[in-house]
Design a protein that fits this description.
Blueprint (H helix, E strand, L loop, with lengths): L2 H18 L3 E10 L2 E9 L7 H18 L6 E6 L10 H6 L4 E7 L5 E11 L3 E7 L2 E6 L3 E6 L3 H4 L13
Parallel strand pairs: 2-3
Antiparallel strand pairs: 1-2, 4-5, 4-8, 5-6, 6-7
């Protein structure tokens, strides 16, 4: 059985349980890491925020399902984590999560050349993304031309600024 077949069967057997827990499968990897096998679940939720405790709890529950369903799998290490802030943006849900944030996008331009830009995501529709390159310049990129897209980690976009409270000076 190929790795692709194994991953499809694992997804089939775990997806409903994961959905019932209000998570979604972002990705699953099954590969050899040094001399042992590793099965990695990257899970997400609507807030795009999963805690370490949630990952540990889900790991135990997913492990029980896999032990019951796939006793023939060679020994493996099970890892459950979030895809992280710098995740690849793969679908509309990911792009909606990144709305208003700075992205690094690798795409094929109109001259059929690869181009990489950093710009703030302003809008998206079924076919394209609208991004702000500068205060005076926007660009429209067709989704079909995007090779890779990720958030750029800019501190002020990750941790919003708190409004400063006035300091009262007593005289």
């Amino acid at each position: 059985m190929s790795n692709t077949d194994i991953l499809e069967k694992i997804r089939e057997k775990t997806e409903n349980f994961i959905k019932e827990k209000n998570y979604e499968i972002y990705d699953i990897e099954y590969k050899k890491d040094n001399s042992s096998w590793v099965l990695r679940f990257f899970l997400d939720n609507s807030s795009k925020s999963i805690t370490l405790d949630e990952c540990a709890n889900l790991s135990h529950q997913i492990g029980d399902i896999l032990d019951e369903t796939f006793p023939e799998l060679p020994a493996y290490n099970l890892e459950v984590s979030s895809p992280g802030l710098d995740r690849l943006l793969k679908n509309d849900s990911d792009f909606m999560w990144a709305m208003g944030k700075t992205l690094k996008i690798k795409f094929t331009n109109d001259d059929n050349k690869k181009e990489v830009i950093e710009a703030r995501l302003l809008n998206l529709n079924h076919e394209s993304l609208e991004l702000q390159l500068s205060k005076k310049s926007n660009i429209l990129i067709k989704k079909a031309t995007i090779l890779e897209a990720r958030r750029v980690m800019i501190f002020d976009e990750i941790v919003p600024k708190k409004p400063q409270e006035p300091i009262l000076i007593e005289e």
